[in-house]
Specification:
The protein contains 8 helices and 15 strands. It is α+β, with helices and mostly antiparallel strands. α4 crosses α8 (251-263). The strands form 3 sheets. An 8-stranded mixed β-sheet has the order 4-3-5-6-7-8-9-10, with helices on both faces. It has a 5-stranded mixed β-sheet with strand order 12-11-13-15-14, sandwiched between helices.
Length: 266
C-alpha cells in the first residue's frame, strides 16, 4: 500500500506520541492520575500525547480544525472545513492498570465526512489505517476485510459496558441478556477504537456500544466501512457520531443484531 501524504502525517504524529506512551506504560505505578468522572480517568500521559499529536498535525496542516478529547474543539480556517479528530489514549483505564489493550486514534473529517482514519496500539505495534475509497489496512500491508460469518450462533461479538453510575446500566443488562443467548461468545475489551478495528480485521464479528464520543468512533467507523462492513446507530437512522450509539458488523449479522438490541427492553 502506498501511503498518501495525509496518512503519512497522521502516522508520524501517532508514532511520535507513542514513544511517550510506551515509556509511561512501563511505569504505570508512577503515573499522575486524576479522576475526570465516574470511571473516566485522565492521566498526564493522555494530555501530553494529545499535545504532541496536535502540534504535529497542525504543523503539517495549520489551517485545519482540531477536536480532541482533552483539548476540545478548536475551529480552523481551512475553506474545505477539514478537522482532525483525536483520542490520544482510548482505553485509559486499561492503560493505567497495565493492560496492554489501548490505542491512539486519529481521523480527518472534511465537510462533516470522515475521509481518513488511523488506530494504533503502541504496545503491540499494530497500526490500522483507512482512507475513503482506498480500503483499510493493517501495518500498511494486509488489507482488512470484515468476517464473512452469516449465522449469529457462530459469531464472536464485542460490546462496551456502561461506566459506574451510568443511567444506561439497566438497558445494557437487557441487551446483554438478549445477545448472550444467541451468540458463540461475548467480549468486553475496553477500547472502542480497537474494537471497531478488530471488526474491520475480522477478529470480532460484530460490536455494539452506547454513549460514545466522536473521537471514539470517527476512525473506526471509516475502517469498518472500508473493510466491507456496515456501521449504524442502534435505534434509528441517525449518524452514530451524533448520537454516540454504534452497531458494527457485516451485512448479514447487523440485521439480526439490530433486531435483538431494539427488542431488548429494560
Amino acid at each position: 500500500m502506498s501511503l498518501s501524504p495525509i496518512l503519512t502525517v497522521m502516522i508520524n504524529a501517532a508514532r511520535k506520541a507513542a514513544r511517550g506512551l510506551q515509556r509511561d506504560f512501563g511505569e504505570v505505578e508512577n503515573l499522575q492520575v486524576s479522576v475526570k468522572g465516574p470511571g473516566d480517568f485522565v492521566t498526564a500521559s493522555d494530555r501530553k500525547a494529545e499535545k504532541i499529536i496536535r502540534e504535529e498535525l497542525l504543523k503539517a496542516r495549520p489551517l485545519f480544525g482540531f477536536l480532541g478529547e482533552e483539548t476540545g474543539d478548536l475551529e480552523g480556517t481551512d475553506p474545505a472545513k477539514h478537522r482532525w479528530i483525536v483520542d490520544p489514549i482510548d482505553g485509559t483505564t486499561n492503560f493505567i492498570h497495565g493492560v496492554p489493550f489501548f490505542s491512539t486514534a486519529i481521523a480527518l473529517e472534511r465537510q462533516g465526512e470522515v475521509v481518513a482514519g488511523l488506530i494504533y496500539n503502541p504496545i503491540s505495534d499494530e497500526l490500522f489505517t483507512a482512507e475513503r475509497g482506498r480500503g483499510a489496512f493493517l501495518n500498511d500491508r494486509r488489507r482488512l476485510r470484515v468476517a464473512a460469518r452469516r449465522d449469529i450462533h457462530d459469531a464472536l461479538i464485542c460490546c462496551g459496558l456502561p461506566h459506574r453510575g451510568n443511567e444506561g446500566n439497566a438497558q445494557f443488562r437487557a441487551e446483554l441478556t438478549a445477545m448472550q443467548g444467541r451468540v458463540a461468545g461475548l467480549r468486553r475489551s475496553g477500547s472502542a477504537c480497537l474494537d471497531l478495528a478488530y471488526v474491520a480485521a475480522g477478529r470480532y464479528d460484530g460490536y455494539w456500544e452506547r454513549g460514545l464520543k466522536p473521537w471514539d468512533l470517527a476512525a473506526g467507523m471509516l475502517m469498518v466501512r472500508e473493510a466491507g462492513g456496515f456501521v449504524t446507530d442502534i435505534d434509528s437512522q441517525a449518524d452514530p457520531m451524533a448520537r454516540g450509539d454504534v452497531l458494527a458488523a457485516n451485512a448479514d449479522l447487523i440485521v439480526e443484531m439490530r433486531k435483538l438490541l431494539k427488542d431488548a427492553k429494560a
